[in-house]
Design goal:
The chain is of the alpha+beta class. It has helices at about 15-25, 45-55, 120, 175, 190-215; strands spanning about 5-10, 30-35, 40-45, 65-70, 70-80, 90-95, 105-110, 125-130, 135-140, 145-150, 160, 170-175, 185-190. About 25% of the residues lie in helices and about 40% in strands. A hairpin with a 2-residue loop joins strand 2 (about 30-35) and strand 3.
Length: about 220
Amino acid sequence: MSDEFVVEAKSREAQGTGASRRLRRDGWTPAIVYGAGKAPQSIVVSHRQLYRQMGYEAFFSHILKLEIDGQPESVVIKAVQRHPARKQILHADFLRVRADHAIRVRVPLHFEGEAVAPGVKTGGGVVEHMMNDVEVECLPKHLPEYIAVDISKLELDQTVHLSEIPLPEGVELVELKHENDAGVVAIHQPRKVEEDEEDEGDSGEGEQASDDEGESED
């Protein structure tokens, strides 16, 4: 993790819907930081800075430095509430992290080798992504920026499951802890081709039936 994200914040005293609206009008995003055995703390962060940083995929899978009134804390972002119509962050939740305590964070999947996969290159299939990220559990020092999924050898009608993904040291998949070995990515025939083949099959049966009826009438 070469990048470092610093989020500047201020303590927030005013509470309630009206106060939150005023803060947003003034360019601030209400937020809360909690965890690590400390009391939750209401804060505000610069909407402009937060919105810009959220444009980086790595922001969501990094240990962030949250500076509240100049005092730094290590955190991860746990939840974001966005406006349904405008490009606006309405609220954010930050979770404090401790070096000796495991955390659960959603990490993006990066798929590699799609163009050369036999199921695509020679089988004429298309790649279907069932997941774009996964929830991992690990110590903060082991948190990966992303997890690579190599499908360069995937054949037509084959699927890669969670248990088949190579994981970095110290990282576990939460779904596997619950014995949910779901599919992650697969290669299938394009839907249109499948539908065309079904239509042709139906048409052939109809013609055969017509011929048979003609023969019975003679």
